[in-house]
């Protein structure tokens, strides 16, 4: 049996590639419910390539980290097949999550598919090894690696899709990247390499393993970075920059064109605000009684009195009522300027809450949380800098 050693730097690089790929995928699929079907399909395809290609790149870099005393090569057809399997299976999981109602059961199934894709990619890629050695897999190793890959993928998907916040996306990315890495290295712990009786391969690769791994890792990061740049709108909003001024600039993206249609249908006072949204500057500060949102490719309006909370999501927002959460094309700064300041309170840079719907409050150290509605389970964070103000308005000080 051949002794197996690992290059620690390449091991770390492989984990970084997996986490980066997972983050790119989850970021690309954020906010897809507010887009058209064609745009959603294109973004899911990009996310599947980023995640599936990233999983394959992680595996390849991790195999380059393996230091053996013999030269090994990879069958090109099986190597390509392992990459395609990873892309297709993860793409299927993403389609399941973003078309149709996203239920807990669907999230579990999507996690199972992702885990199965990781396992299938790994073992098909390992079967592509040729050269002066034979590769053997222990049955317990296959079972353990499969359980880790599927279980960790379900946990990562649950964490990422339970609440589509930036924190959840980041946490889910780390968990999914670690799931891919844990599956690979647990499988390798039960994999053995043995010399063949009659060595037949004596050629030496033109590139060292370290150089090849570096090229693959850099290519994975560049591809993920390009996908992320393609998904970023042309201009940055004040909400993203942490600026809460109402004169945030907004580009003419699809939601901006939606606001133009909203402007044509709103009453006079709301039309003024919608047109101001399209121009990118606040031209009116009159409070409105209805906020536009989109559902099933239809523009609808939610009375401000029914809004429980508003959550910033990139350039736009999610508004929450007792029935659920909906996409709104306005930034949180725009909504804050439009709504009654005596009713709506900024508890966090990313959250507005309706004081009339606050049903509970919890303080934890120098931070807190407001509970909204009855039986909704909606909890909104209160930041350190706004804690005293919230406590005073609730009559707690």
Describe this structure in words.
One of its GO terms (cellular component) is membrane. With 397 residues, this protein is of the alpha+beta class. The protein has two domains: 227 residues, no CATH class; 105 residues, OB fold (Dihydrolipoamide Acetyltransferase, E2P), CATH 2.40.50.1020. 53% of the residues lie in helices and 19% in strands. The strands form six sheets. A five-stranded antiparallel β-sheet has the order 11-10-9-13-12, covered by helices on one side. Helix 1 packs parallel to helix 7, helix 2 packs across helix 4 and helix 4 packs parallel to helix 6. The radius of gyration is 25 Å and the shape is elongated. It starts with a strand and ends with a helix. 41% of the residues are buried. About 13% of the residues have low confidence.
Domain count: the total is 2
Share of helix, binned: 40-55%
Radius of gyration, in angstroms, nearest whole number: 25 Å
Q: How many β-strand runs?
A: 16
The main β sheet shows up as: 5 strands, antiparallel
Q: What's the number of helices?
A: 12
Mean pLDDT: 78
- Estimate the strand proportion: 15-25%
Structural class: alpha+beta
